[in-house]
Design a protein that fits this description.
72 residues; mainly alpha; 4 helices; 0% strand
Length: 72
Amino acid sequence: MSDSKKEFVALRLDEVIHEWEANAPAGGSGSEGPLVTAQRHRAEIDSASDDRVDEIAEAYPEIAQAWSSRGA
């Protein structure tokens, strides 16, 4: 896999996380919600295998769709 897909997924995850953080309730719940999962995926992406990057991207339909439709 090219670094461009890792970079693309990382950038999109950053955007998703930023949006979810902005909309998160004050104080947080400390639970294993989608924001925490996205943050873990983002931390993992730089050292992830190609297959794992694909799995992470597929967990976020908007990211998978954006990747498949880029340049179209």
